[in-house]
Amino acid sequence: MNISATTEERLWAVLSHLSSLAFGMGILLPIIGWSDQRRKSNYSSFQSLQALGYQSLGFTVWILSYLVIIVLATILLLITLRPEVESGQHANVILNSGMIFFFIIIFGFFAIYFLLPIIAAVACAFGKDFRYPIMGNRLARYLAYDPIRKSDEQVGLNDDHEFRWVAAMGHFSILIMLWGMLAPLTTWILYGPRSLFLRFQSIQTLVYQAATTTLLFIGGFIYLFGFLLLVAVTGIIGEANFNSLGGIFGIIVFGLSLLISFVLILLVPFLHILGQWAGYRVLKGHDYHYPWIGSLIERWIAHRAPLADESQVSLKGTSS
To answer: What whole-number distance in Å separates Cα of residue 284 and Cα of residue 271?
Structure first.
């Protein structure tokens, strides 16, 4: 469907979609585009929010699907190879063919993720109302976006659902290591002073993601520390001596560091799942609070400066 969009509207839509090619780093651009075009253009606002959803929610679905495909492709490769290995017939041929097929699946699926935003950007450059598969039409209904409505009848998107979508995408972006924090950070900077709901959700999301990322790095650091200590006290670089007191001490320390780091790193996926749950609850209209962090952030916000005049929104996302 062709839309009578201005050059500025199309430009923001194109940039928002192309930002997906930055693979995480570009997640702030759709939020900036939505903030700039909100109440100016439903078309560019919708395309920006759709691009944000593709980079956050879409990335979550994509990475989970990617892992499933890798596991299934690996199992298929092993099943195909095993009879040939046992019989000793054409094992190398089967292995080479299987590896080629394996890499085609892996990199082909990877390329699809980048192909869709390019198609979206080209479509928006020509003023078309692009919709991502599955997500696009659902988001249009969620935001009450109607591209057929005439310009003189134009009304804004659903305010409450706009805020909830942006907040939820901040929660979903937890799977994007480090760069995912740009989503709640950008939201806090641009809309924190004007929306109490977005201020609270973006700050608690930012703190939660920072704590989860820090926990992951601490686990890796403890493991590395234990390994380096083992190397130092046992002389493993030269001639290893595990029977000495230093060697036993190094093994014990390394074992403890391995156990601690394993527990911490194992905890991270559960924290990621909680972030996804938070995004789902926000989309469903709930005022989600992370355990402990949410209450602290809420009390901290209560002692800060009041909101600006525009878009006075409560913690529950409803206009006050």
So the answer is: 20
CA distances from 51 to 75, 130, 131, 138, 141 (A): 34, 10, 10, 14, 16
pLDDT band at 15 (very low <50, low <70, confident <90, very high): very high
Beta-carbon-side half-sphere exposure of residue 294 (alpha carbons within 13 Å): 11
Residue 224 pLDDT greater than 50, yes or no: yes
Rg (CA), the chain: 25
pLDDT score recorded for residue 310: 43
- Average pLDDT score over residue span 233-262: 65
Task: For residue 109, count other CB atoms closer than 10 A to its CB.
Answer: 15
CB 169 within 8 A of CB 57: yes
How many residues are listed for the chain in this entry? 320
Helix, strand and coil percent figures for the chain, each rounded to 5: 75, 0, 25
State the pTM of this model: 0.81
